[in-house]
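Progress report, Aim 2. The chain analyzed during this reporting quarter is listed below.
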Amino acid sequence: MSSCEKPEYPRAALRAEATGTTRIRFTIDASGRVAKAEIDRPSGPTREHRSLDAAAVEVLSRCPFKPGTDSEGQPIGGAVATVEYVWKLE
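Predicted structure tokens for the chain:
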């Protein structure tokens, strides 16, 4: 995750001073890309919170990961992980 860029705060969420934590559960394919990502816990109930969640999923989807390997060292997909993005105003 350290090589992933940080999501930009959506303008509407910034204006509304929306904060929270987005938890995303995702699956990595054999090439090290995010194959599937879903919101496990949204940052909050409002439209602005949904924009925070969408921004987090978008950035996560562009992150490169190291895929798992089988017993012969060949890359395999299917690894599942969870990440949290904490949204706070600074």
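The radius of gyration is 15 Å. Helices lie at 11-15, 47-61. These observations will guide the mutagenesis work planned for the next reporting period.
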